[in-house]
Write a structure and sequence with these properties.
The structure holds two protein chains of two kinds.
Chain A lengths: L2 E12 L2 E13 L4 E6 L5 H8 L7 E6 L2 E2 L5 H10 L1 E4 L11 H10 L9 H11 L15 H13 L5 E5 L7 H17 L4 E5 L3 H5 L3 E6 L2 E4 L3
Parallel strand pairs in A: 3-8, 3-9, 6-7, 7-8
Antiparallel strand pairs in A: 1-2, 1-4, 4-5, 9-10
Chain B lengths: L2 H14 L1 H36 L4 E6 L1 E4 L2 E4 L8 H9 L3 E9 L4 E5 L1 H4 L3 E4 L2 E4 L1 H12 L1 H10 L17 E4 L2 E4 L29 E4 L2 E4 L11 E5 L19 E5 L12 E5 L5 E5 L1 E3 L11 H4 L2 E2 L24 E4 L6 E5 L2 E5 L1 H15 L14 E6 L14 E10 L8 E4 H12 L1 H5 L3 E6 L5 H10 L2 E3 L1 H45 L1 H9 L4 H41 L15 H27 L3 H6 L1
Parallel strand pairs in B: 7-23, 20-22
Antiparallel strand pairs in B: 1-24, 1-25, 2-3, 4-7, 4-24, 5-6, 5-21, 8-9, 10-11, 12-13, 14-15, 16-17, 16-19, 18-19, 21-22
Helix pairs in contact in B: 1-14, 2-12, 2-14, 2-15, 12-15, 14-15
Classes of the chains: A alpha/beta, B alpha+beta.
Bound molecules: adenosine-5'-triphosphate and magnesium ion.
Chain lengths: ~230, ~625
């Protein structure tokens, strides 16, 4: 199995007020699964995703991703984990607007000392072709449309061939037509790379239905879908 | 993150934030510009102005004096100021050479300058003597000898073969049997003046140390072969048997004296000497006796008046005393100097080479020339070779000596030196020794007034001053002034350097602020970099590298500004500063170490300014930034 959460608790403290967002979340997700994560706004979906992705280590409980126990990792190891093992796609794309598309896609390689510099461009073109944007490689990122930006973000996310792809409402900022196109990209990806686990936060039931499995979260705990 | 990747990313960031980058660097540029400007100016003034007046590795010391009821009394006894003291100083640790200085101890006047000003200027003359060897390098530099030679080498001229200066055209002299342009610095050496004496009355008491009274003049005595210097012979004074009668019989005491050897065919190198055969059959160079129609002609302005006529030789070869004798004048470059201003007879002598202080010219130009309606002097070249008269024993201030001992000598300006007397002239020390002996007795010629001590480097000087003070000496005014000026300059430079560092420190606060702003703008970027694998150290390094670039950029621009400013100041100084000779072309010294240091300090301040922003950037929580 790829991901295992055991009794995960997360509390945000803002001044005196404590917000128990996650109250004992436990679940496992197998390798190669394609999971939709659903729940009301503020139910802690993004929080959970950040914990799985190693962006947030300030939680209680145990999280194991691809055999790595996140609680025990230091900044260096965590950074490496985010670089090689998991990847994020955000609702707001978060590209570096001043850089060309190809440099945005290659960004993970900046922080990857083992990477041979020679095949970077080939790899960038390859992943851009995968998201159908080979022709945009030279454009500057902020000249792209929203759908294109999100596809570049996906290309960036799969550049280092991660084992887990974490998507936080990837279509949330797009209209339904372009959102559909982006979803198609995900489906192709899932079909092609069978062992890559895909977790997608979404509010749209229609999108969730396209996934293999739906996990619903409510009041800080998993409601259903842990089958 | 690899170094190249970091540099590439930093470069991209700088390009994106050009404006804030430039704004942040303004304070730094100002700081570095002021700092390097004043440090370079301080270094320039030290090496190009102060060191020329008084080199850092030289001090001048004089006997300590104490005030006693308004009169300053010397602590040391006079007999401590002789040669032994030179030896004692030479033995002090760190001292490489000792140059004694001798001041004139009698009243004198000088006048001349008709060809320059239109009428004769007259003034009291003060003079002192210095070892010629000490001054040669400085004289060459001021005369720009190397430049002269290079210019001369460019326009190749026909070489004229010669034996002595007279064989050459005007403005040239004989050297290694060819005529070459006159280089005045070479003339600053002792060529000898004849010191009259009266063996019957005073013996050797008024002859310079090491000389004896023979045939009415002081000469170096000897006892036999080998007691004279190289190239000299010990002979019965040829003046005793010379056909011209120079003085009373009582002056005709004959001694054996040292004279340079010569051959009648070659003659003597010095224009004022004549090669004569002695009774012993040897040929030696002896002073050339001459006489004047009227002793007052010595004070005349016309060269024909003071050339005189040579005694003992007829131009047409007939024996001396023959009525058909055609008289010859003193050779070119010499004049007939009477034994005193009342004597008709004397010797052909070369003018006394003297040096002036550049300050004298500056003072002349800035105040004297204007108030007296005289022409300003333009630099060195107009005055080189200029001649005037010195009258020993005559004074505006003190009582005159009897006219029969007053003597007139011609003097020729051969150079400028900052070690020369500020108000007066400086000549090779042997002249002063001879003149002091002539008028004040042998003892007055033995005691030096001050000593210039030369050391290996500046480091030795402080200890040396202490050692010298223990021996009853103190720094001479000019030397202590130089040290005070150097200290003051150092303090001023330090103050300005400190101010510039304060400016840079304030700039660092500004830089910190700018960086805080920049990282706030870039927080998504930083978050995404963290999300795709950047460590905290990667982020910190990006910011620090950016700060380093800012430091290098601000430092380099500051230095360029400073350098540009220095050119402007130099230009203004050339146009508007009213000093003639001690003014350098460039008042600034930019040393590579100083430039590197300034950039180093700029970088350091940038790093300090960027530390807090870098830390804040590194600890940005990507989860918060990216999911809100
Ligand atoms: N950095 C934070 N500090 C304090 N509270 C936070 C922080 N991040 C999230 N929260 C709170 O935690 C709760 C869960 O937030 P989270 O972003 O995980 O919800 P979500 O399910 O992703 O909601 P949405 O569907 O609106 O994106 C919310 O109530 C939110 O206010
Ligand atoms: Mg969310």
């Amino acid at each position: 199995m790829t991901i295992r959460l055991t009794d995960v608790h997360k509390t945000y403290r803002v001044g005196e007020v404590a917000n128990h967002v996650l109250q004992g979340v436990s679940c496992t997700i197998e390798a190669g699964d394609y999971v939709a994560l659903m729940g009301a706004s503020g139910s802690g979906k993004s929080t959970l995703l950040n914990i799985i992705g190693g962006l947030d280590t300030d939680f209680d409980g145990e999280v194991t991703v691809c055999g790595q126990v996140l609680k025990r990792m230091g900044d260096r190891e965590l950074s490496r984990f985010r670089n090689r093992t998991v990847s994020f796609v955000f609702q707001q794309f978060h590209l570096l607007p001043h850089l060309p598309v190809v440099d945005n896609v290659m960004m993970p390689s900046w922080f990857d000392p083992d990477r041979s510099q020679l095949d970077l461009h080939d790899r960038a073109r390859q992943v851009l072709a995968q998201v159908g944007l080979a022709h945009k490689a030279g454009s500057t990122a902020n000249h792209l449309s929203g759908g294109e930006k999100q596809r570049v973000a996906i290309a960036r996310a799969i550049f280092n061939a991660p084992q887990v792809l974490l998507c936080d409402e990837p279509t949330g900022a797009l209209d339904s037509k372009t959102g559909d196109m982006v979803m198609q990209v995900f489906e192709e990806l899932h079909a092609k790379t069978r062992d890559m686990t895909l977790i997608m936060v979404t509010h749209a039931e229609s999108i969730a239905q396209r996934c293999r499995r739906i996990i619903r979260i409510s009041d800080g705990a998993i409601l259903s879908g842990d089958a | 993150m690899s170094l190249w990747r970091t540099i590439w990313a930093v470069w991209g960031n700088i390009r994106r934030n050009r404006r804030s980058f430039v704004m942040a660097s303004v304070g730094l540029v100002v700081g570095v510009a002021t700092g390097t400007f004043f440090v370079a100016l301080g270094a320039g003034v030290q090496t190009k102005v102060l060191n020329r007046i008084y080199p850092v590795n030289q001090i001048e010391v004089e006997p300590k004096t104490v005030g006693l009821m308004g009169i300053r009394e010397q602590v040391l006894s006079n007999d401590r100021l002789g040669k032994e003291m030179v030896r004692e100083f030479s033995a002090l640790p760190g001292v490489t050479r000792v140059y004694p200085k001798l001041r004139s101890k009698l009243q004198a006047r000088l006048w001349g300058g008709k060809s320059l000003f239109g009428y004769d200027a007259r003034t009291e003359a003060f003079f002192d003597g210095l070892d010629a060897a000490l001054l040669a390098p400085e004289l060459r530099q001021v005369e720009r000898v190397e430049e002269k030679r290079r210019r001369r080498a460019l326009k190749r001229r026909r070489t004229v073969v010669c034996k002595r200066d007279e064989d050459c055209p005007l403005g040239q002299g004989c050297e290694a049997e060819t005529c070459v342009d006159t280089e005045y610095w070479k003339r600053f050496e002792h060529r000898g003046i004849q010191v009259p004496c009266d063996a019957g009355k005073t013996g050797d008491a008024f002859c310079p140390p090491g000389t004896t009274c023979s045939a009415g003049v002081c000469s170096t005595a000897c006892s036999g072969a080998g007691t004279c210097g190289a190239g000299e012979a010990c002979v019965v004074d040829p003046l005793c048997t010379s056909p011209g009668a120079t003085g009373a019989d009582s002056e005709r005491t004959c001694a054996k004296v040292c004279r340079p050897s010569c051959t009648p065919a070659e003659g003597c190198a010095d224009a004022h000497l004549t090669c004569v055969a002695t009774s012993g059959g040897e040929s030696v160079c002896a002073p050339t006796e001459c006489r004047l129609a009227d002793p007052r002609r010595q004070l005349s302005d016309r060269p024909s008046d003071w050339r005189g006529e040579v005694v003992g030789v007829c131009g047409n070869g007939v024996p001396w005393g023959d009525p058909a004798c055609e008289f010859t004048t003193c050779p070119r470059g010499t004049y007939c100097a009477g034994r005193s201003i009342t004597h008709k007879v004397g010797f052909c002598e070369q003018p006394v080479p003297v040096l002036l202080s550049p300050f004298l010219i500056e003072i002349f130009n800035s105040s004297v020339a204007e108030s007296l309606g005289l022409q300003r002097l333009d630099g060195v070249d107009t005055l080189l070779g200029f001649q005037f008269r010195l009258l020993f024993g005559d004074s505006y201030f003190a009582d005159d000596l009897p006219t029969e001992v007053q003597a007139a000598k011609r003097a020729e300006i051969v150079g400028f030196s900052n070690k020369a007397l500020d108000f007066g002239v400086t000549m090779p020390i042997d002249y002063v020794r001879a003149i002091n002996a002539r008028y004040k007795g042998r003892e007055a010629a033995k005691q030096f007034s001050t000593f210039i001590l030369e050391t290996e480097g500046n480091e030795d000087v402080a200890g040396l001053i202490a050692a010298v003070e223990e021996r009853g000496f103190q720094l001479a005014r000019k030397s202590s002034d130089a040290r005070k000026a150097a200290d003051l300059l150092f303090i001023l430079t330090a103050i300005f350097a400190f101010i510039s560092i304060v400016i840079a420190a304030v700039a660092a606060v500004n830089i910190a602020n700018t960086f805080l702003m920049i990282i706030a703008e870039r927080r998504y970027e930083i978050g995404i970099m963290r999300a795709v694998g950047a460590t905290r150290a990667d982020i910190r390094r990006l910011i620090i590298f950016e700060a380093v670039s800012l430091g290098v950029f601000g430092g380099a621009v500051g230095e360029l500004v400073s350098f540009g400013l220095s050119r402007v100041v130099n230009h203004l100084a050339t146009d508007h500063l009213e000093v003639a000779i001690s003014k350098p072309d460039d008042f600034f010294v930019y040393e590579p170490a100083m430039l590197a240091g300034a950039i180093g300090i700029a970088v350091l301040f940038c790093i300090v300014g960027a530390l807090v922003p870098a830390q804040r950037a590194a600890t940005t929580d990507p989860a918060v930034v990216l999911t809100s």
